[in-house]
């Protein structure tokens, strides 16, 4: 009698599990929406982002998916055009009916998406840099990269360590560059730094010697260039051509091998704030990020035979934060996933240790930024 009851219980349990599996399968895949700048002027950012998302969606699916369901990546290439980003986000929300969005390579594209996801009530993890994305806080919007404000603070902190205080600022008129300029101008006086020259250039400009000539004849003790894409490399070359001997800083917008290749010898000695990912092998063994950045570097190189960039790392963090939130929510219910994202604590990613809250939808502090210097054509960690 007892064995009979046990067999019946086992059959009931098996049937229940079967029904649960069937129900989960009937729900279909979990849709991860993405819009990235895979082509166009920001392609060196968007290309590794897309490759990273594809790599880890496949990897997660091979391990059984999430909550017993496969992930489906629904992706569009906005080519760095904010208007296209707006169109594609509408498609992701209205036609594809995605569960969460991980993407937005540029600040312009991200900000074009923000009102749409806020109105639709869909969790959105941006991969763009400007602080305006999460300050002020927006209910459904999160981001993975360090902000431009943090970049200014990290650079000025290093400038002061060198005993300097007068900085020339040359910034790009893109969304990223404009926001970076505004943040640097705002935080400089608080950190005892004076902006002695404030010049701008267009993202498609091919010669910045006119702006840099004003830097050379000024009282500046250091130069900070705030931009992304090919133009910061042009600035670095123009600095060398004009024989400007000032210590040069770039923003985190150039944290990829492409900048090293484009700038060549002109990049030697340039410093920039970036994530630990670029110096994975230089981190001490007890650094909590080391296992994460070493594993990501190994897997990305094995798949694509390419060097990693911080931008691919941002995509890795965005996907993993979303997946972690879905797991903790126990469903793809959008409000539950949003709340889980907002309560993320102790997530160790390529960008740092993330601790979010209702008032902080990024969750990184200044210690997540490492100061790097380019030596012999490669990244080195500044002690």
From TrEMBL:
In the UniProt record, the signal sequence range is 1-25
User: What's the short name of a Pfam family annotated to this entry?
Assistant: Peripla_BP_6
**GO process terms (BP):** amino acid transport
The segment(s) forming the Leucine-binding protein domain are 29-363
Q: Would the keyword Transcription regulation turn up in this protein's UniProt record?
A: no
Q: Which domain of life is it from?
A: Bacteria
The protein's UniProt keywords, in alphabetical order, are: Amino-acid transport, Signal, Transport
* Name of this chain's protein: Amino acid/amide ABC transporter substrate-binding protein (HAAT family)
Gene source species: Plasticicumulans lactativorans
Protein family (similarity comment): Belongs to the leucine-binding protein family.
InterPro entries, A to Z: BCAA_transport, Leu-bd, Leu_Ile_Val-bd, Peripla_BP_I
């Amino acid at each position: 009698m007892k064995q009979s009851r046990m067999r019946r219980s086992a059959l009931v349990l098996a049937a229940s599990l079967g029904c649960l599996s069937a129900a989960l399968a009937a729900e279909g895949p979990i849709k991860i929406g993405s819009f990235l700048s895979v082509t166009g002027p920001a392609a060196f950012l968007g290309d590794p982002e897309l490759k990273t998302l594809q790599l880890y969606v496949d990897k997660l699916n091979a391990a059984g998916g999430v909550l017993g369901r496969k992930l489906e990546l629904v992706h569009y290439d906005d080519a760095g055009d904010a208007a296209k980003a707006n169109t594609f986000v509408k498609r992701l929300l209205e036609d594809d009916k995605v569960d969460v969005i991980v993407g937005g390579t540029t600040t312009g594209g991200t900000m074009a998406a923000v009102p749409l996801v806020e109105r639709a009530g869909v969790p959105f993890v941006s991969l763009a840099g400007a602080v305006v994305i999460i300050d002020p806080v927006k209910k459904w919007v999160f981001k993975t990269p360090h902000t431009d404000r943090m970049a200014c603070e990290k650079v000025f902190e290093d400038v002061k360590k060198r005993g300097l205080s007068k900085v020339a600022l040359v910034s790009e008129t893109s969304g990223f560059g404009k926001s970076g300029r505004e943040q640097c101008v705002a935080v400089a006086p608080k950190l005892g730094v004076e902006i002695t020259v404030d010049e701008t250039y267009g993202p498609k400009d091919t010669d910045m010697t006119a702006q840099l000539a004003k830097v050379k004849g000024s009282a500046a003790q250091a130069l900070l260039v705030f931009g992304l894409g090919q133009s910061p490399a042009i600035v670095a070359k123009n600095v060398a051509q004009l024989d400007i001997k000032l210590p040069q800083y770039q923003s985190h917008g150039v944290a990829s091998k492409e900048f090293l290749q484009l700038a060549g010898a002109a990049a030697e000695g340039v410093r920039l704030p970036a994530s630990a990912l670029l110096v994975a092998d230089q981190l001490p063994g007890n650094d909590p990020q080391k296992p994460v950045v070493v594993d990501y570097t190994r897997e990305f190189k094995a798949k694509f035979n390419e060097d990693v960039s911080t931008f691919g790392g941002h995509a890795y963090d965005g996907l993993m934060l979303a997946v972690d939130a879905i797991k903790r929510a126990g469903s793809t219910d959008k409000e539950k996933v949003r709340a889980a994202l907002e309560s993320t604590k102790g997530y160790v990613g390529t960008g740092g240790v993330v601790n979010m809250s209702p008032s902080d939808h990024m969750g990184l502090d200044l210690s997540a930024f490492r100061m790097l210097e380019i030596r012999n054509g490669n990244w080195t960690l500044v002690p």
